[in-house]
Each structure stands twice: as structure tokens, then as C-alpha cells.
Amino acid sequence: MTAARTLPPIVRQAGEGERRWFYGGGIHTWLATAAETGGAFVLFEDAMDKGKRTPLHIHSEADETMYVLKGEIVMHLDGIDERIAAGGLAVAPRGVPHAFLVTADGTKILCLQTPGCCEAFYLGASEPLTPETVRVVDFDRIRQSGAVNGGIEILGPPPFTDEP
User: Fold this and answer.
1) What average pLDDT does the segment 42-68 reach?
2) One-letter-per-residue 3-state SS of 53-98
3) In what helix (H) or strand (E) does residue 149 lie, and over which residues does it extend?
4) Do residues 111 and 46 touch, judged by C-beta distance below 8 A?
5) CB–CB of 100/73 below 8 Å?
6) Which residues make Cβ contacts (< 8 Å) with residue 5, sequence separation at least 6?
7) Distance between CA 78 and CA 61 in Å, rounded?
8) How does pLDDT run across 14-33, given as a tens digit for each residue?
9) How far apart are CA 135 and CA 36, in angstroms?
10) Are 120 and 2 within 8 A, CB to CB?
């Protein structure tokens, strides 16, 4: 007996997927949306410059997995800093305080959130990338999207005192 199919397959080639400027800094390329996965997950690539840092935060309803494709980050997970280079992985289970700092220009990560319940937060904290997009970091917009859309709770400023 074969299982009933409810969703169509997803295929994206390199360079495909909606590109958005994220107000926390970085360009997201959406590879799989919550609608496409039936809410099971969201997957996006995040291209960032050295110095990008996130505030300390949690995702109370989603696990966040980050796989470093290129470059390096320092991941702060539950009070411990870990340096993660290309090929490395970090998982922040739901409810675990975390943040990260980008330590190399041209860093790219894959971000997988399961389930896909945080997508509205990311969409509210970003805009489609066009040649006219002004790329400014705006943490007030990040906080506002979290308050309106859920998906994230900001606990405090970035926990990094200096760049490691």
C-alpha cells in the first residue's frame, strides 16, 4: 500500500529561491517554506558579513539547526561559546538561549527550523531583495516582528564582549 501524497516535491537549483534582506543583517535565500513542507520545516541559506551578531534569544516552539557552508561563526548555546567552521553544525533545541557571531566575511549557513512555525517572524523582519534595497540592520524591526508574529523571544543583547 502506498501512502497518499499531500504535498508536491520541491526542487530548487543553485541560485533559485526568494532572496530577502533580513533586518538582523544578511541575505536569506528561501529554499523551502512552511507552506511547501506542510508546516514541517523551513529552510533558508543566510549569507552574512564578518561582525554580524544576533541578540540572545530563544525559539520556544521550534528547534533551530545551523550548518556552516562557508566561513565561520561563534555559536553561544546555553551560556557556552563554540567556534564552528565550514562543515560544522549547531543545534539549538526549542527554548535554549542562543546567539551567534560571524567571524569571517562571506560566511554562509543553512538554517533549518522544525517545525516551520517561525516563518512569519522572518518574513516580518525582512523584505524582498532588490537593487534598491537599503541594507541596514534594524533590531527594532526584529523585535517588532517577534512581538507581532511570534517565533522568537529576545532575551537580551548579544552575549559577545569582543570578537573571538
Assistant:
1) 96
2) ECCEEECCCCEEEEEEEECEEEEEECCEEEEEECCCEEEECCCCCE
3) helix 139-149
4) yes
5) yes
6) none
7) 17
8) 989 999 999 999 999 999 99
9) 28
10) no
Domains of the chain, start order: 35-130+137-150 (2.60.120.10)
Contacts for 3-12 with beta carbons within 8 Å, 24 or more apart? 6/38, 7/36, 7/37, 7/38, 10/36, 10/37
Phi, psi of 152 (to 5 degrees): -155, 145
| The pLDDT of residue 139 | 87
pLDDT at site 1: 57
Asked if the bond preceding 158 is cis, omega within 30° of 0, the reply is no
Note the pTM of the prediction, 2 decimals. 0.91
The three cell numbers of residue 51 are 561582525
Say how many CA atoms lie within 13 Å of 66 toward its Cβ. 27
Name the DSSP class of 153.
Answer: E
